[in-house]
Structures are given as structure tokens and as C-alpha cells.
Recover the amino acids of this structure.
């Protein structure tokens, strides 16, 4: 599958991965864990390193000396201090952690950017995206691959306009990221819900009934007996998805299903980092306070963890 076909498939199935008929297809967007390490500062700060930098970036600090770690951390602090007031707040830390955890998304956008920015002006217009993605296909009203490209283009244009905050039909890198990954942006969540409902709502009545809900996850494919998880999902629909018990899910019920209000791990970690590093207890961090606790924020193979624990307990 080439890039164009991949992106068009993405526009139709943003919210779920393709599965075998007997496997569960999941449309629910959960906030990923910040690290697969155990969060126990009495043993190590590995969880905090992964949370603050992202797991891959955290590894790059392992070979550094403490002096090198402090120098690089100081440069990172300058980036975190968004308003350049000399302090890092809990909110700025939270934003940084969320960005670090979504690096794979930004890398994905970077990899695609040059493909669509045809005039190399640092922006992507709707015309550029449409021409690259659909240009050669729109002339053929009946392609052999079964895709309805005109319908896909209408859907993509609607999403592009939603991502384009200033309405000029020209996307900045952040707006283009919101277009490709709408589930990551609060202002795009309505379009995620709308597209999901359009995918599942086969009778186009504006709701998702029980059979549409199950049919999206599971195909009988000649099997008379449903797997146990399908029976469980039927119960979930009746007991939890259909909150007003009218036999179907409306937009708000669908939103509660696919975009649940999860525990905010980034907020909790930002609060933890501030608490552990805030020497004068003013609720915000200076660069000196962060660098002084560099072992909490970043890794260094040369760090004596026993010594670090002593410093950790002093605060």
C-alpha cells in the first residue's frame, strides 16, 4: 500500500485497528502509560526519566556523565519554560511530558510533511493535500480497488477545515498534526465522534444500536457461536454504553465510549516532579532547582543511585 492509499485508509479507520473476525476491534482511545517501569523512587528514577523524556530519549542519557546530563537538562528546561519568565510551572511540565510522550506522532508528521508541502513554504494547503492524495484517482469514477475516493475526499476536507483553526485552508504543522491525529486534540474530538458514528451507523439514523455496535467489532463469518467477549460487549452496551436506556447510543454516549475521561498520568507526574524538586516550596521550579535534581529528571550511568537517594530524601 503506497502513502496515498495509507492516508485514505487512515481517514476511514482512524479509530481502530483491523482485526480477524473472531478478534475484538477496539475504537477506544486511552491515554498511554508514561513508562512500563514501576514508579518507585525508592528503587530507581527510571519511571520519571521515561515520563519526562520519553522512553527512547531517556536511553540517550544513560551514557552521559552527570555534568553532561546537567548541561543537556538545562537546555531542555529553556524549552519547557514556554513564557520565558524564568520559572517552570506544573502546567508547563505537564505540556512538556505530553509532548515527549507523543513524539512518535510528531515524527510521523515530519516524515510525511515533505510529501505534501509542494511549494516548500512551511505550510500545507488543502489544495496541496488534495492534489497529492487524490489527484490521479478523481479522474476515474470507478476504480478497481473499491475505494470511493470522492467520498473520502469530502470527509478529509471536512476534517481539514476543522483542524484549520483560522479558516484559511492552509495548515501549519500543528494544524496538520491535528488533521492526521484528531484524537489527540480536544478541539477535534467532535470530528472523531462524527466519523466513528458514520462508520458504524449502517442505517444512517444518527445513532448506534446494539447490532451496529456489535457488528463493527465482530463478524459472525459463518460461526453460529459468539465468542465470550462478544456476549460481554452486549452486556456492556446495555449496562454502560446506552446510558439513557433507549436502545441506542447518541453522540454524547458515543463520545463517552471512544474518548473516556482517563486518569491524567502526565498531570500526576508533573505534580510529583514539582513536589520533589521545589526547594523553596513556591509551587514552581527554577532552572537551578531542576538541574540540582537532575538525577530525578534524566538518567546518567555514572550516577550513584545510593547517593541520589540521600539527596532525594533531603527534600
Amino acid at each position: 500500500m503506497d502513502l496515498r492509499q495509507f492516508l485514505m485508509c487512515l481517514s476511514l479507520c482512524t479509530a481502530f485497528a483491523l482485526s480477524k473476525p473472531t478478534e475484538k476491534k477496539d475504537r477506544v482511545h486511552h491515554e498511554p502509560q508514561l513508562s512500563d517501569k514501576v514508579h518507585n523512587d525508592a528503587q530507581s528514577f527510571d519511571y520519571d526519566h521515561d515520563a519526562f523524556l520519553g522512553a527512547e530519549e531517556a536511553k540517550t542519557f544513560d551514557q552521559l556523565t552527570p555534568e553532561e546530563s546537567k548541561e543537556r537538562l538545562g537546555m531542555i528546561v529553556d524549552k519547557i519554560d514556554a513564557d520565558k519568565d524564568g520559572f517552570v510551572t506544573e502546567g508547563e511540565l505537564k505540556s512538556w511530558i505530553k509532548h515527549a510522550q507523543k513524539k512518535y506522532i510528531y515524527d510521523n508528521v515530519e516524515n510525511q510533511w515533505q510529501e505534501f508541502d509542494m511549494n516548500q513554504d512551511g505550510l500545507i494547503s488543502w489544495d496541496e493535500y488534495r492534489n497529492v492524495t487524490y489527484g490521479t484517482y478523481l479522474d476515474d469514477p470507478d476504480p478497481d480497488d473499491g475505494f470511493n475516493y470522492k467520498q473520502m475526499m469530502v470527509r478529509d476536507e471536512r476534517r481539514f477545515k476543522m483542524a484549520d483553526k483560522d479558516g484559511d485552508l492552509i495548515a501549519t504543522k500543528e494544524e496538520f498534526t491535528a488533521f492526521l491525529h484528531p484524537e489527540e486534540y480536544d478541539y477535534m474530538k467532535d470530528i472523531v465522534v462524527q466519523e466513528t458514528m458514520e462508520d458504524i451507523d449502517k442505517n444512517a439514523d444518527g445513532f448506534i444500536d446494539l447490532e451496529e455496535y456489535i457488528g463493527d467489532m465482530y463478524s459472525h463469518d459463518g460461526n453460529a457461536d459468539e465468542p465470550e467477549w462478544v456476549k460481554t460487549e452486549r452486556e456492556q452496551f446495555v449496562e454502560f454504553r446506552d446510558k439513557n436506556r433507549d436502545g441506542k447510543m447518541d453522540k454524547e454516549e458515543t463520545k463517552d465510549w471512544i474518548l473516556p475521561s482517563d486518569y491524567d498520568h502526565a498531570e500526576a507526574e508533573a505534580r510529583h516532579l514539582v513536589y520533589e524538586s521545589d526547594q523553596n516550596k513556591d509551587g514552581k521550579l527554577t532552572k537551578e532547582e531542576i538541574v540540582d535534581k537532575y538525577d530525578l529528571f534524566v538518567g546518567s550511568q555514572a550516577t550513584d543511585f545510593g547517593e541520589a537517594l540521600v539527596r532525594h530524601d533531603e527534600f
